[in-house]
From TrEMBL:
<dbReference type="Pfam" id="PF05013">
    <property type="entry name" value="FGase"/>
</dbReference>
<protein>
    <submittedName>
        <fullName>N-formylglutamate amidohydrolase</fullName>
    </submittedName>
</protein>
<dbReference type="InterPro" id="IPR007709">
    <property type="entry name" value="N-FG_amidohydro"/>
</dbReference>
Amino acid sequence: MDRLSVQQIISKIENEETFSAVSEDYAFTLKISKYVPYACGAVHDGHQFRKDLWNNCLHSEYDRWYEEDPETKSMVISHPIVIAGCDSRFEYDLNRDPENAVFDTAWGKQLWKNPLPKKEKEKSLQKHTNFYKVVNALIAKLEEKFGVCIVYDMHSYNWQRWDREVPTWNLGTTNIDNERFGVQVETWRQALAGIQLPHGIKQTAKVNDTFQGNGYFLKYITNNFKNTLVLATEIAKVYCDEYKQINYPEVVAAVEKQLQTLLPKHANEFYNTFKE
């Protein structure tokens, strides 16, 4: 993996080079092993939290981990195009618009002992800006090359804090063109519902049951690219103990292995349906 500037990454995309890179400021990674009409994103996978902010932060390391989406990059790592955040959403949230990306409060609790200095906020927002410059270049290239594109926007959520039964998988679709892409939403839901998990973990997949797909990553791509479908795909954190901060690698591996087959099959069907 190379460490590259944003401009170097964009240049490689524009030249259709294959590469694996971390951004110069270690804020995100991008792997392109082959140009295909689909990409995977894991914007909340990151856990880094820059040291300048530690003493001013009221949330613990566990509080941050609990609200992040650990292992979501691991679930799609085998696919040809994967972009993922390295930094915690508590530093800046890639799934929120720039005006709201740096939190003052997080999940009902004040985040900072003292208001964040302007220069610290600007440092965080610059990382957010850089990420979206690369997203823009990437999706523009895929649409230019293939005419259409599909993005699997991977997330996870804390299922144990709900006071009702919630699905293993949730698709958020309120901000996509459901009239145009409704069939593809349903075939993806069915594919996820068929994934087998160890330890008898119940397997269900629903649409807009727990989350509706209101994230900025989805909205940004949807609003800027007319022929790209973004599927906000959330797995309940059945792959870890969300209270003890223990990951279950065998569950992550089971998801990753089955997505190796299911995801390209779904993407290929999408491409064959919508290509000109």
